[in-house]
Amino acid sequence: MYIVHSTFAVPEQKAGEVINIYKNRSRLVDKAKGFKDFLLLQNEKRPGEITVQLTFETKEHYLEWVRSTQFKEIHDMEKKYPDQELAAIVPTVRQYKVVAT
């Protein structure tokens, strides 16, 4: 398995808005080859810190997703978000290979 975290910080007062955006996400990634799971995580001590966790069967499946037109569509929509403060946020991305379960 291959897990990717995209972590970003938003103003705490906007955390609920961001969570609602993800609750209503397009779900395009759910149809990607090798996709296993999506989780949205909120840091309990720093509520403005949000992490998107994606799980794929393999790194190759993840890379296929990143190169897809659907991935580009989603990220182009984010850039057009009306709240420019949120649209300008660049996440920190970390990638993990699962080595034991």
From TrEMBL:
Mind telling me which Pfam families this protein's record contains?
ABM
Superkingdom as given in the UniProt entry: Bacteria
SUPFAM superfamilies, alphabetically?
Dimeric alpha+beta barrel
Q: Which residues form the ABM domain?
A: 2-90
What keywords appear on the UniProt entry? Monooxygenase, Oxidoreductase
The UniProt GO MF terms for this protein read: monooxygenase activity
Q: Which residues form a coiled coil?
A: none
Family annotation (InterPro entries)? ABM_dom, Dimeric_a/b-barrel, Heme-degrading_MO
Keyword hit for Oxidoreductase: yes
Q: Which Gene3D superfamilies match?
A: 3.30.70.100
Query: In the UniProt record, does the keyword Oxidoreductase occur?
Result: yes
Protein name as catalogued: Antibiotic biosynthesis monooxygenase
Which source organism does the UniProt entry give?
Fictibacillus marinisediminis
Organism lineage string = Bacteria, Bacillati, Bacillota, Bacilli, Bacillales
